[in-house]
Amino acid sequence: MPAFVQSASVRRRRVTLALAAAALALPLAAGCGALDKALDCVQTADTIVSSVGNLQQAVSNAGDNPLQVNQALDDIDSELDKLQDTTDNADLGKAVDDLDKALDNVRTSIDGGDATPDLAPVTDAASEIGKVCAP
């Protein structure tokens, strides 16, 4: 297994644990609506981190299945749409916009024939979403 795939898996576990811990630390005094929104944010952020890991794997296997990269990008777009619907947080909106731009750059690179697009902005933006969703 390539080293960057392993590190993505480790990174995904760390973000997932951090998000889970943050969700458990939510004050019980928060209203049910606010708690539900926060948990939705955490769950969706976790799914995005997982989808970014899938994107990294798809890019590394692009020679075997080029459609897998597009599917991974579509999955992240879908999760971003869900996340955008669950909150009106300005910081989260900026992080989602940053991830959208990074995904567009990856799509443009792939469409231009780049077999190894730069995924660092994607992982950075996904991490930022995880931070914003953590209370």
Q: How would you characterize the overall build of this protein?
A:
The chain has five helices and no strands. By secondary structure, it is mainly α. The radius of gyration is 15 Å and the shape is elongated.
Identify the overall geometry.
elongated
- The total count of helices amounts to 5
Strand content: under 5%
Gyration radius (Cα, Å) is 15 Å
Structural class comes to mainly alpha
- Return the average pLDDT rounded to an integer: 76
pLDDT below 50 for ≥5 consecutive residues: which ranges? Answer: 1-5, 18-24, 26-31
Most strands sheet: none
What string gives the helices and strands in order? HHHHH
For the record, give the distance between the C-alpha atoms at the N and C termini, rounded to a whole number: 34 Å
Helical fraction = over 70%
Number of strands: 0
